[in-house]
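Why do we care about 3D structure at all? Because function follows from shape, and shape follows, mostly, from sequence. That is the central idea of this module. The next example makes it concrete: a single protein chain, its amino acid sequence, and then its structure expressed as tokens.
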Amino acid sequence: KEFPYDQQALHVLLASASYMATDVQLVPMTGANLSDIGAKAFDKSDWTFLSHDLKVFSEEVGSLKKSRAQFQMHVLRDASPYMSSTIFPEIMIVVLSYTVFLFPVNPGFAMPRVSSAVIAFLSILTISTRTSAMLPEVRRGLVWMELFEVVCKMLLFIVIMLNILVETVFHSWQQPELAKQLVNELRVAFPLVAG
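And the structure:
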């Protein structure tokens, strides 16, 4: 749900395959820095190293009593690639769709108004498919990025429908003054609703 601001705990479980806890007892080495785990290990990835931990415990399952060690590493995802490739472009597309209401209401600007709204909607659908490919396949519930995209799509669909209404009032109903008044009100109302 928090993607791309999520943290992950990576686990490695160690145990002897053939020896019992009475034969081999795993003990963590303390004091010496024997692992090369650190920030440098994640330099060329989307992850940032936070910490690591080593636990030793005994586990008894039926007649098997094993000594086990668990290495746990905590990492944080770097959200900046996702922000620059999805969120910021989607915000810019919603802003671009607002420019539909800045065009004058006359027959010469009918096509630019319609095409700007439709192209903005198609652009956000394209980004949406790319975002879906980025999301983890296994997740619980809706990720906030999906909800953000749904809201952006709804805003763009509303822009298309309002633009159709303005064009219908102007061309079909032959009410140019009402169409101009609608556009003037939408210039103020859309940023208030979208913001």
